[in-house]
Amino acid sequence: MAEQKRDYYEVLGVQKGCSDDELKKAYRKVAKKYHPDLNPGDAEAEAKFKEANEAYAILSDAEKRQRYDQFGHAGVDPNFGAGGAGAGGFDFSDFGDIFDTFFGGGGGFGGFGGFGGSTRTRNPNGPIRGNNINISINLSFIEAAKGCKKTININRMVRCEDCNGSGAAAGTQPEICPDCHGTGQVMTQQRTPFGMMQSARPCSKCGGTGKIIKDPCKKCNGQGRSRKAVKLEVSVPAGIDDGQTFVLRGQGDDGLNGGPAGDVNVTVSVRKDALFERDGYDVWCDVPITFCQAVLGAEVTVPTIDGKVSYNIPEGTQPNTVFRLRNKGISYINGRGRGDQYVRVNIEVPTNLSSKQKDALREFDGQCSDKNYNKRKGFFDKLKDFMKD
Question: What percent of the chain has pLDDT over 70?
Answer without folding.
Answer: 81
